[in-house]
Design brief:
Blueprint (H helix, E strand, L loop, with lengths): L18 E3 L6 E5 L6 H11 L4 E2 L3 E2 L14 E2 L2 H9 L3 E7 L2 E6 H9 L4 E4 L2 H8 L7 E7 L3 H10 L5 H15 L7 E4 L3 H17 L1 E3 L3
Parallel strand pairs: 2-8, 2-9, 3-8, 4-5, 9-10
Antiparallel strand pairs: 1-11, 4-7, 6-7
Helix pairs in contact: 1-7
C-alpha cells in the first residue's frame, strides 16, 4: 500500500529573505509519453492514493458517450466553440486526434493552482512542451513515462489486439519521435510495475514541493 506523506508546513523561521518552498503554491505536474507507456493507468493509481491532487479535465469536440458527464470526464464543446477558445488563447495546448479536437483549458489549470492545489495533467508529448512554454505563473514539472524497453512497448501495443501491422508501425514511428524529446523533460519514470511507477511520481512531487525557490517580485 502506498503511503503518501502529508504536505509539509514550512516555518518562515528558517526561510531566507526572498525565498520560499515551491510547495507553497500549486504545481502543474504534466505526464506524457508514447502510446503504450501506461499513462492513464499510472495516473489513475496516483489519483487514487492522493486525494489532494486535482486532475485536469480537457475540452473536446467529440460526441459525449452515455456514461460520460460534462465537466467530469470532458468539457464537451462544438467545433466552432473550440476554434474560438483556441483563437482567444484559452487553451494551454490542443491537438486533433481521429478528426476530433482535444485541448487543455487555461482557466481549468490556473484556478486550481491559484488555490494552492497541485494539478495532474495527462497530455501528448507535444502538448506537454507547449504547456512548458505557455507562461503559466506557477511551477510546471514535466514527467516522461516509458515502459521498461522498446520490445515491451511493442508487446503492449500488440496485446491491445486492435492494431494492424501497418498501424503498429505508424505508432512506433510516432513513439520514436516522441522519445527523442526525453531530454526536454524534467523526470523520466519507467513503468515496469504500476504501483512502483505511481510511487515514483509521488516521490518526485514531494521533492518538487520541498524545492527552494526565489520569491517573485
Amino acid at each position: 500500500m502506498t503511503v503518501i506523506p502529508p504536505r509539509q508546513e514550512t516555518s518562515s523561521d528558517f526561510l531566507p529573505s526572498g525565498w520560499d518552498t515551491q510547495g507553497s503554491r500549486g504545481i502543474a505536474l504534466v505526464v506524457a509519453g508514447p502510446s503504450g507507456a501506461g499513462k492513464s493507468s499510472v495516473i489513475d493509481k496516483v489519483l487514487e492514493s492522493d486525494c489532494s491532487l486535482a486532475f485536469s479535465v480537457s475540452a473536446t469536440t467529440r460526441t459525449r458517450r452515455p456514461d460520460e458527464v460534462h465537466g467530469r470526464d470532458y468539457y464537451f464543446v462544438s467545433a466552432e466553440e473550440f476554434r474560438r477558445m483556441a483563437g482567444a488563447g484559452e487553451l494551454l495546448e490542443w491537438t486533433v486526434y481521429h478528426g476530433r479536437s482535444y485541448g487543455t483549458l487555461r482557466s481549468e489549470i490556473e484556478e486550481r493552482l491559484a488555490g494552492g492545489q497541485d494539478v495532474l495533467l495527462n497530455v501528448e508529448v507535444e502538448g506537454a512542451l507547449a504547456i512548458q512554454k505557455a507562461n503559466l505563473s506557477y511551477p510546471v514539472v514535466l514527467v516522461f513515462l516509458v515502459p521498461p524497453s522498446r520490445a515491451e512497448l511493442v508487446r503492449r501495443l500488440q496485446r491491445r489486439g486492435t492494431e494492424t501491422e501497418e498501424a503498429l508501425e505508424q505508432r512506433m514511428a510516432i513513439a520514436e519521435r516522441e522519445i527523442a524529446h526525453i531530454s526536454d523533460f524534467d523526470y523520466l519514470i519507467v513503468n515496469d510495475r504500476l504501483e512502483l511507477a505511481a510511487q515514483r511520481i509521488h516521490s518526485l512531487l514531494t521533492a518538487e514541493r520541498c524545492r527552494l525557490v526565489r520569491c517573485s517580485d
